[in-house]
Write a structure and sequence with these properties.
Elements lengths: L6 H7 L5 E6 L3 H11 L4 E2 L9 E3 L11 H6 L6 E6 L4 H15 L1
Parallel strand pairs: 2-3
Antiparallel strand pairs: 1-4, 3-4
């Protein structure tokens, strides 16, 4: 965000900015874990933010202590998958995710 106090520093130190990508899969928890279990490059973790890409299922990790009603109010569905994109080549990340998407049909 350009208004962040350290935006200029980040621009000098990085050739691009990292990102967190979230998406909700049809099929709920089963679909989310099918995708997550199929990855080989992306590390499964409950913690986001690393030099390597990580993947997590918020409903059972970061938001697992909330009631189903609290998760729903926060937009955390059973099919939600969150990826923190690291420094790997984008083609490698895409290939890793495609393995899981292929299993989902």
């Amino acid at each position: 965000m350009t208004s962040h106090p350290q935006h200029e520093l980040a621009k000098r130190q990085q050739s691009g900015f990292g990102g967190i990508v979230s998406f909700d899969l049809h099929g709920g928890r089963e679909a989310a874990w099918t995708l997550i279990d199929a990855t080989r490059l992306i590390s499964i973790t409950a913690n986001l933010g690393d030099a390597k890409s990580t993947i997590t299922h918020p409903a059972t990790t970061t938001h697992g202590r909330l009631t189903p009603q609290e998760r729903e109010a926060a937009g955390i569905g059973e099919g939600l998958v969150r990826i923190s994109v690291g420094l790997e080549a984008i083609a490698d990340i895409q290939t890793d995710l495609e393995r899981g998407f292929h299993l989902l049909g």
